[in-house]
TrEMBL record:
Residues in Four-carbon acid sugar kinase N-terminal domain copies: 4-130
Species for this entry: Paramesorhizobium deserti
Protein's UniProt name: Four-carbon acid sugar kinase family protein
Pfam families in the record: NBD_C (PF17042), SBD_N (PF07005)
Entries under SUPFAM superfamilies matching the protein: YgbK-like (SSF142764)
Record keywords, A-Z: ATP-binding, Carbohydrate metabolism, Kinase, Nucleotide-binding, Transferase
Length: 359
């Protein structure tokens, strides 16, 4: 029986908030879209996370998608407030109110406990507002829930101990709403004490699909190329005619700008098609850098299910999925995440012999 359903408005959020449960040994499955939920719920997972892919659309459509998710959850017996975790952006982006209220009303919650703090990223909640790194002005949480009939609690959290107190004090009729900080505290409460799963490693030959143009990512790519000298393929607007070379352990496919102006969605679709073509040439593992990159690749191919196996490094979740009728290890990294050496460190730890399955 699934213990917890995580509802996120994008794939990166689903992966990031679910990863702490996988790291601590709970079977954790990701549904890349609501249409994949039924298959995910048959996996006998402890934790299922679903991406509604609703952040960029309208509020009405977002609420309708969450309603669809909650109906599927109810059919599977997941219909109590303590079984639902509503993942939201730590800076309150997207349709926070519409999606949260839809989930809360569907499961009969009496109170929302809203805390999007991520202390590990120096982002906290203090005096009912989000503050810290990347937040120019405090973001008041109560302002997102005016005229709400149920109680809305926005507890302060400046460290992991604060988050753990929030979890321990939550009642059965409270629905938890937060980001990776709060989900990490919940994982520590649900998972066996002291258990830690062995970190997965990419298996050669590996493809690093870099869709992000974040300056942090560009610095990481420069460091990767300096330290490991991988094969490199440029993809203007997501299109590349070159294939991976036989015997190459690491190939970097990097989205580049082009003189031809096209939409971001079209560039991502092009990039996804290029990635799928390269995967057909014997690639054993894939790292997608950039949330839209990972979403486009997984939306365009595969069965829409990822069984998380842990993290390559903290904040870089990895799991097993099936693309083009082949199982492979896939990892994701947000564009602005990680230190200068993280991609090079991952590349240098690539597994050349053993299976990518985790014991």
């Amino acid at each position: 029986m699934t213990k917890l359903l995580i509802i996120a408005d994008d794939l990166t959020g689903a992966l990031d908030s679910a990863a702490p449960f996988a790291v601590r040994g709970l079977k954790t499955v990701i549904a890349c879209r609501p249409r994949h939920m039924e298959a995910a719920l048959t996996q006998r997972a402890d934790v299922v996370a679903v991406s509604t892919a609703s952040r960029e659309g309208g509020a009405a459509a977002a609420r309708s998608t969450v309603a669809e998710v909650m109906l599927a959850a109810a059919r599977a017996g997941i219909d109590k407030p303590h079984q639902i975790f509503k993942k939201i952006d730590s800076r309150m982006k997207g349709h926070v109110r519409a999606e949260t209220l839809e989930a809360a009303e569907a499961c009969g919650a009496n109170r929302l406990v809203v805390c999007p703090a991520i202390p590990a990223q120096d982002r906290i909640v203090w005096n009912g507002a989000v503050r810290g790194r990347g937040v120019k002005e405090p973001i008041g949480i109560a302002g997102f829930f005016p005229d709400v009939t149920m109680d809305v609690l926005a507890p302060d959290a400046a460290n992991d101990e604060d988050l753990e107190r929030i979890i321990s004090s939550a009642g059965p009729a409270d629905m938890l709403v937060g980001a990776a900080g709060l989900s990490g505290a919940l994982a520590r409460a649900l998972a066996p004490a002291g258990f830690a799963r062995t970190a997965p490693r990419l298996r050669a030959p590996a493809l690093l699909a870099i869709g992000s143009r974040d300056p942090i990512t560009l610095e990481q790519i420069a460091q990767l190329r300096e330290r490991t000298n991988p094969a490199w393929i440029g993809a203007p607007n997501g299109v590349a005619s070159v294939n991976t070379a036989d015997g190459v352990a690491i190939t970097v496919l990097q989205m580049l700008p082009s003189n031809e102006v096209i939409s971001g969605d079209q560039a991502n679709r092009n990039f996804s098609q290029t990635v799928q073509r390269l995967l057909d040439r014997g690639i054993e593992s894939l790292l997608c850098c950039g949330g839209e990159t990972a979403d486009a690749v997984l939306a365009g191919a595969g069965n829409g299910i990822i069984e998380l196996k842990g993290e390559l490094l903290p904040g870089i979740p990895a799991g097993i999925t099936e693309i083009n009728d082949k199982k492979l290890l896939i990892a994701t990294k947000s564009g602005g995440y990680g230190d200068l050496n993280c991609l090079a460190d991952i590349a240098e730890s690539i597994d050349f012999v053993e299976s990518c399955e985790i014991d």
